[in-house]
Amino acid sequence: MTGGPVTQVRSADMRDTAVDWAKRGFKVFPLIAGGKTPRDKAFYEIATADPLRAAELWTDSITGWPQPWNVGLLMGDGYAAIDVDVKGGKPGMGSLAALDLPRDTLTVRTPSGGLHLLYRAPRDVANVADSDKAPSPLGRGIDVRGRHGYVVAAGSTVEGGRYEIEQDTALADLPPLILDRLSAPRERLTDTQAPACDLDTPEALQRVTAFLCAAPVAVEGQGGDAATYQLACAVRDMGVSEAQAVDLIAEHWNPRCAPPWDGDELARKVENAYLYGQNAPGAASPAVDLGGVVDLPRPAVIVSKPIVRFLSDANAAVRPTWLVKEWLPREGVVLLAGQSRIGKTFLSLELAGALATGGGFFGRPVRERVGVLILAAEGAGTIAPRLEALRLHRLGGIDATALPIAWAEISDANEIGAIVTAAATEMQARFGLRLGMIVVDTVAAAFSVDENDAQLATAAMKALGKLAGDAGCLIVAVAHYGKSDGAGVRGSSAWTASADVILAATGEISEITGEVKDRKLALTKSRYAETGPIADFELRSVNLGVDEDGDPISAAIVRPISASAFDPHQALYLESFAGLMLAAAEATPDGRKGVPRELIRQHCYGEWSDSTPATRKKRFARIEERLIAGKHIERAFGAHGVEFVVPAPPVTPATLF
Questions:
Q1: pLDDT tens, 188-228?
Q2: Which site from 45, 117, 529, 649 is most exposed, i.e. has the minimal number of CB atoms within 10 Å?
Q3: Total count of domains within the chain
Q4: What are 612-630's pLDDT values in tens digits?
Q5: Is residue 306 scored above 80 in pLDDT?
Q6: 107 with 216, same domain?
Q7: What range defines the domain where residue 647 resides?
Q8: 3-state secondary structure of 567
C-alpha cells in the first residue's frame, strides 16, 4: 500500500464537491468517507444530477450538518470512463498511448498515478476489468466504466492521496472505433430479476457459508471457470444478494482455489451468474414469506446435534453468551417493564446507545458492538430528538452517521418480519455489523392485544422468541406496570412467564403533581444470572436548540446515579456544550464542528455567579481537564487563534461511558 494517512477533509467541502459535479451534469452518489466503496448498495438508484438533491445526500437529516462522504460519479446514460491503471507496474499508460482516443477531455489524476478520462458515449457500454484471464479489449491496464459502473470524483481523498482534475475541459465523444471494441451491457432477464424471497437473511448467510466451506474448489486448467460460475449460481439460488455472494465467496471459498481468482475476476463471475442464471435469487431457499412474524422461518440446521447430552460430553454445560455481561444474553426476549412516566423508552435508548458504540450499560461492559432496530408502536415521532440528545450528551458527540441505530413505526405486527430483514441487510451494508438488538415499544401496542388475555400474551411473546431465534438477536419488549410497582407487569402473568429476562424500572410517582422521584432499575428475572437491584437513575433534560419561535427544544436522557456519573459542574459544562453545538457551532480548520470556548465559559460563569472570579476560573479549568481526560471533549484552534471545544472522536467506544 502506498501513500500516507488519509488527509483530513472538511465535510462542507465534500458536500460542495458533490454539488459541483452534479452541476456539471454527472449523477453523483456517496462513497464511504476516505474510501472508494459506495455507502449504499443500490447506489445507482440514488445517484442524482440534481444539485439540490446532491446537497441533501451529503447532509445529516437530524443535525443538518454536512457529511464527509467521498463522491462517486455514476457512468452510463451518456457517460463512460476510461480507467488507466498503473498500480503494481500495470502498463496502462503504454496501452493508452496506443489507443486512438481523444485526449482533449475532462481528465482526473488518481492517487496512484493513473488517469480517469471521461467521455460522452452515444450508447451504453459494459464495464471492463482487465485481468490475466480476461484481458481488456483496449489493452492491458485499461479498465472501462460503463452502465452501473462508477469512478471516484476529483476532490475525494483516499489513503493514497487525493483525486485531482488534471485537465478541466468539455467531454469529448468516445470514438466509434473504440465503441466497436466494447460490448453493450447485458441486461438481467426479466423473469429472474425479482428475488423469490427476501435475500441475505441470517439463515441464508449461514447456509451459504457452510456450503462454501465444503464446496470443491476451482483449479486452473481443470474447468475452473465453469466450476466458479456453477458455484455462484448455487449461492444465488440459496438466497443471497450479488454483493453478499461476492464477499462470502471471496472469504470462504476463493482462498482455497488454485490459484485464487483476482477480486475483479471473481466479481465478474458472480455478476454473470446473477445475469444469466436460470432461477430467481432464492429459488432454492427453504425460506417462506417473511411478511408475518408467525411465519418467520427457523434457521436451517447445518450441523446435526445429539438428542441428549451427558455431563461428560464436550460443551455439555450451557454458558450464555452475553451482550451485557451477566445481565443481557446475546439472544432471547427481555421484558423492560415499568410504570408510566418512569422512563422505559429512555432506558431502551440508553441500552441502544451502549450496544451501538460498544460502551457500557450502567457500568456493565458490552461484549459486542451491534446494530439496533427500534420498532415504535407508540411515540415514533419522539425517537429522533431523543437519540440526538443521547448522542450529544452520553455518546461523546459520536458522528450521527457512525451510529448504527435504525427505527421504524409499526402499526401491524405482520410488518415486523420484512422490516427486520431490511434493517439487518442495511446494517451490515452500512456499518459491517449484525443486527443484535430489536426494541419493541410497546409490545402490547405492536401486537394490538388485550394485555389481560393470557392466550394472546403468550402468542405475542412466543412470536418474539421465534423472531429472536430466527434473527439471532436480543429482543427488548417494552411493557407497562400497573399503577404501582407492587402490581407488577400490567395484564396477564403470561408476559412475565414467557420472558427470559425482566428489567424493572420503578419509582415514586405523584398522581397530583406528576413528579417522579427515586427512579430505580433492577433485574427481577433471569434464566441465566442472579437477580437484584442495578442502580438508581434520573432523567436529565438536554437542550437541542430553539424552534421557529425562539423557544427551547429539549429531550431527556438517562443519567445513572453512581460514583462514576458526572458531578453537577461537569454536567452543566456538557449541557452548555450540547446546546451551543446546535445553536452556535462553527467549522474548525480541520473540518470538525465546534463551539468557541469563550461561549461555554460565559454560560458556566453565569450559572456560578455566586462564586468569586478566581473560583470560577479554577473550576472551569478543572472541569475541562477531567472531560478531556475522559475523552468527552477535545480542544481545537480556529482562525486567529480562537479556541474551540469539539466532540472527542469515538475512536475507542468503550471510553465513552
A1: 444 445 676 777 777 778 888 888 887 888 887 777 777 78
A2: 45
A3: 4
A4: 888 889 999 988 888 887 7
A5: no
A6: no
A7: 566-656
A8: coil
Q: How far apart are CA 17 and CA 153, in angstroms?
A: 8
Examine the fold and report which residue of 536, 560, 584 is the final residue of a domain before the chain moves on: 560
Q: Which of 523, 544, 560 is the last residue of a domain?
A: 560
Element (H, E) at 171: none
Answer whether residue 174 is part of any domain: yes
Q: Are residues 473 and 345 in the same domain?
A: yes
For the chain, the maximum distance between any two Cα atoms, rounded to a whole number of angstroms, is 87
Q: Are residues 400 and 536 in the same domain?
A: yes
- Ramachandran angles phi, psi of 348, nearest 5°: -65, -35
168 and 250 part of one domain:
no
Instruction: For residue 293, tell me if it sits in a domain.
Output: no
Listed residue (153, 80, 86) closest to 114, CA to CA: 86
CA 299/CA 469 separation, integer angstroms: 8
What's the pTM value of the predicted model, to 2 decimals?
Answer: 0.45
The beta strands (E) that lie in 110-221 are given as 115-120, 142-145, 150-152, 157-158, 161-162, 164-167, 172-173
| Same structural domain, 72 and 155 | yes
Peptide bond into 589 cis (omega under 30): no
DSSP state of 103: -
In a domain, 301, yes or no: no
Residues 553 and 575 in one domain: no
Shared domain check, 113 and 215: no
CATH number of residue 597's parent domain: 1.10.10.10
591-628 core/surface letters (b: 16 or more CB in 10 A; e: else): ebbbbbbebbbebbeeeeeeeeeeebeebbeebbeebe
Same domain membership, residue 211 and residue 77: no
Report whether pLDDT(163) > 90.
Answer: yes
**Gap between the Cα atoms of 84 and 103, Å rounded:** 12
Q: Can you tell me whether residue 644 is helix, strand or coil?
A: strand
User: Can you name the residues that pair with 607 across neighbouring β-strands?
Assistant: none
Q: Are 80 and 119 within 8 A, CB to CB? A: yes
User: Is the alpha carbon torsion for 319, 321, 326, 332 positive or negative?
Assistant: negative
Instruction: For residue 341, tell me if it sits in a domain.
Output: yes
3-state helix, strand, coil in the chain (%, to 5): 35, 25, 40
Q: How confident is residue 7, by pLDDT bands cut at 50, 70 and 90? A: very low
For residue 360, CA distances in Å to 220, 617, 651 come to: 51, 32, 15
By DSSP bridging, strand 142-145 and strand 161-162 are unpaired
